[in-house]
Amino acid sequence: xxxxxxxxxxxxxxxxxxxxxxxxxxxxxxxxxxxxxxxxxxxxxxxxxxxxxxxxxxxxxxxxxxxxxxxxxxxxxxxxxxxxxxxxxxxxxxxxxxxxxxxxxxxxxxxxxxxxxxxxxxxxxxxxxxxxxxxxxxxxxxxxxxxxxxxxxxxxxxxxxxxxxxxxxxxxxxxxxxxxxxxxxxxxxxxxxxxxxx
Length: 198
Fold this sequence. Notes:
The chain is α/β, with parallel strands linked by helices. The protein is built from five helices and 15 strands.
């Protein structure tokens, strides 16, 4: 059974996620209109400008369709700006979408010029990996509060940078900008589990 993964393609680095999903052997679809959500099994909300993406979500009337998609339990993965948008609260700005039980601070790791890479360990539900992951941080947000049911997949200096909450995963870094596909493969496995396929 084929897996159809949508990548929100309103703004940001959606093309890199598309390439990574295809590399993992799944179908990747650029999502530009709310009705397209009905034809996909999981959704990635990419990095970019969270305020710009938020305005475009309003302009194209995505909120109701996204809430329905999330409400059905379909897996959603947000990176950087996607993490910010899906959070419960954005410091100094108010409510996020409320899809994951975290509060965030935008650009907490510095501006574009302060971008950096760091090797982090991945822990997917109790199974770790000896090989560290090269995490790319670009104007990265920071998780400043986390609910007790949120699972930490990766940390940096003791602070969570990749987390999972039910069928939602969110990362402060950009896994699509590396040649390592383990994070995307894990998301595909979340979709397969939801669909009940191997």
